Amino acid sequence: MILQTKYGVGDEVWFMHDNKPIKVKVSECSIGVQDNYKTTVKYRIYIESKVGLDRISLWLFGSELFPTKQALLDSL
């Protein structure tokens, strides 16, 4: 079985956070296959926390990520 993901590790993507467009890099990709052979793909990204120097880790679906800022804005 060959699985093709929308984004790869290191790809820059855009998403909305606190009503602002943010550009981040994909840090990890997780693929799951359910009993009915439905495949789910999630992407881990990190964003800087507004408090201290910590980073926030988020797992997002590909439908929540966009290749360009314009593509993100067009989806709103």
List the helices and strands and how they pair.
Layout: E1 12-17, E2 20-33, E3 39-48, E4 55-61, H1 69-75
Antiparallel strand pairs: 1-2, 2-3, 3-4
Number of DSSP-assigned strands? 4
N- and C-termini, Cα separation = 35 Å
Instruction: Write down the overall mean pLDDT.
Output: 87
Structural class, by secondary structure, is mainly beta
β-sheet strand percentage: over 45%
Share in helix: under 10%
Count every helix, treating DSSP H or I runs of 4 or more residues as helices.
Answer: 1
Poorly predicted regions are none
Please describe what this structure looks like:
The protein is mainly beta. It is built from one helix and four strands, in the order ββββα. Strands 1-2-3-4 form a four-stranded antiparallel beta sheet. A hairpin with a 6-residue loop joins strand 3 (39-48) and strand 4 (55-61). The radius of gyration is 14 Å and the shape is globular. The N and C termini lie far apart (35 Å). The model has no long low-confidence stretch (mean pLDDT 87).
Spell out the key features of this protein.
mainly beta; four-stranded antiparallel beta sheet; globular; 76 residues
